[in-house]
């Protein structure tokens, strides 16, 4: 009988996924109760101090984190697997996610559906040097840092210790990027923002049709590449069956793709803009810099609409609330599967985490977002910049394949190699 070869489902949790797929540990109930208690305290605090949307966003974030962890839904590993061995399973799940997202976003953006009457707007940003350089740097950074923006959050929630280092330097890189952003946007060549729905005159109906066609084309290309390169399949992960699978076992990628798209649409209707991650990193780091005596408020990035965020509590920032929810949701999911534990750190991983985190933070600021805000949110908002972000992040991923071995990080080179 011919043997089956696999690549792992996500680098952020590869230590978990190397276990036999039939093995599932008992739930870590004390950790679950602790996470529920923290969530309850945060909900009460937000209800008393913030707007009504904030506790809702905390719950949405929790569901996002739960979904990301249980499906091991990655962006970093999806890009790496496709560029290294030609496996496009996760890329196809991205296309399902984006197809559902544009289907939901189109009427929301066209008719301004909102739960709180604040109005809605998508992520549509300019195309130019800032975007190209930033997304390329982000692509390299996520392959060195071991996770993207969402991947860093859910890996932290799952207890992967090195990702705490990645997150710290992600924040530092975001602050540096915020300080340098005027140079990249004002001094370097940049164009206009292009919406497939509004700028082109296609309308949301025409932009939706074009988007669905593009997603189908990309999915077909991944299948052609897989057949040509005889790509290995993704490795199974610990799971169970029946209703228990919803709470404890691994979820199918396509089910998670649909869930993430729905949750992003709910985020759009709740706070008036799609799911984002990295603005909060710049905010956290900039507020810390202010405490250390650095006059961050004088920076152009913290003028205008962003000035109020810098002066307010971090819990007034809806992106912060979502991020905390993602971490808590991933923590609950890992504990429910009996998988939470702090992992060891190798010296090479530390260096890669530092450099990768800095590059992701800096790149995300230049590119107007990360894999969530620019790629997921941008494409779902019918913005051309989201597609360019994806192309440049893939290019950065390819370049990073030659850098990973320098830090002792694996790179799959054949069918019998894991990633």
UniProtKB/TrEMBL annotation:
Residue ranges of the TM segments: 31-48, 54-75, 96-117, 162-184, 204-225, 246-266, 321-340, 352-376, 382-403
Family: Belongs to the TsuA/YedE (TC 9.B.102) family.
Membrane topology: Multi-pass membrane protein
Ranges for region Disordered: 1-23
Major localisation: membrane
Domain of life: Bacteria
Keywords: Cell inner membrane, Cell membrane, Membrane, Transmembrane, Transmembrane helix, Transport
InterPro entries assigned: Sulf_transp_TsuA/YedE (IPR007272)
Record localization: Cell inner membrane
Pfam families, per database record: Sulf_transp
Record-given protein name: YeeE/YedE family protein
GO cellular component: plasma membrane
């Amino acid at each position: 009988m011919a043997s089956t070869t696999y690549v792992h489902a996500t680098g952020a949790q590869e230590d978990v996924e190397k276990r036999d797929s039939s093995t599932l540990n008992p739930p870590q109930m004390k950790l679950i109760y602790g996470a529920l208690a923290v969530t309850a305290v945060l909900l009460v605090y937000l209800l008393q101090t913030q707007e009504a949307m904030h506790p809702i966003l905390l719950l949405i974030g929790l569901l996002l984190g739960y979904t990301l962890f249980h499906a091991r839904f990655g962006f970093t590993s999806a890009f790496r697997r496709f560029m290294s061995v030609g496996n496009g399973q996760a890329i196809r799940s991205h296309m399902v996610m984006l197809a559902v997202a544009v289907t939901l976003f189109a009427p929301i953006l066209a008719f301004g559906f909102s739960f709180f009457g604040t109005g809605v707007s998508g992520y549509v940003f300019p195309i130019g040097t800032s975007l190209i350089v930033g997304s390329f740097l982000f692509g390299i950074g996520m392959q060195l840092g071991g996770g993207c923006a969402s991947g860093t959050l859910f890996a932290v929630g799952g207890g992967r210790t090195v990702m705490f280092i990645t997150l710290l330097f992600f924040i530092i890189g975001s602050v540096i990027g915020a300080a340098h952003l005027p140079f990249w946007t004002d001094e370097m060549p940049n164009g206009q923002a292009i919406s497939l729905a509004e700028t082109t005159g296609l309308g949301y109906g025409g932009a939706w049709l074009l988007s669905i066609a593009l997603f189908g084309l990309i999915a077909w290309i991944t299948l052609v590449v897989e057949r040509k390169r005889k790509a290995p399949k993704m490795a199974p992960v610990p799971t169970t069956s029946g209703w228990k699978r919803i709470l404890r076992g691994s979820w199918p990628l396509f089910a998670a793709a649909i869930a993430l798209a729905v949750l992003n649409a709910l985020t759009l209707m709740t706070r008036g803009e799609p799911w984002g991650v990295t603005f909060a990193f710049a905010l956290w780091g900039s507020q810390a810099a202010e405490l250390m005596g650095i006059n961050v408020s004088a920076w152009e990035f913290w003028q205008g609409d962003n000035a109020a965020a810098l002066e307010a509590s971090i819990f007034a920032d809806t992106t912060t609330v979502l991020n905390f929810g993602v971490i808590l949701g991933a923590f609950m999911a890992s504990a429910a599967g009996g998988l939470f534990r702090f992992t060891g750190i190798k010296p090479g991983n530390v260096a890669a985490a530092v450099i990768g985190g800095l590059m992701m933070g800096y790149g995300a600021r230049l590119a107007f977002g990360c894999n969530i805000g620019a790629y997921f949110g941008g494409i779902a908002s019918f913005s051309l910049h989201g597609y360019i972000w994806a192309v440049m992040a893939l290019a950065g991923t390819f370049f990073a394949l030659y850098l990973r071995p320098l830090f002792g990080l694996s790179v799959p080179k054949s069918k019998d190699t894991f990633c």
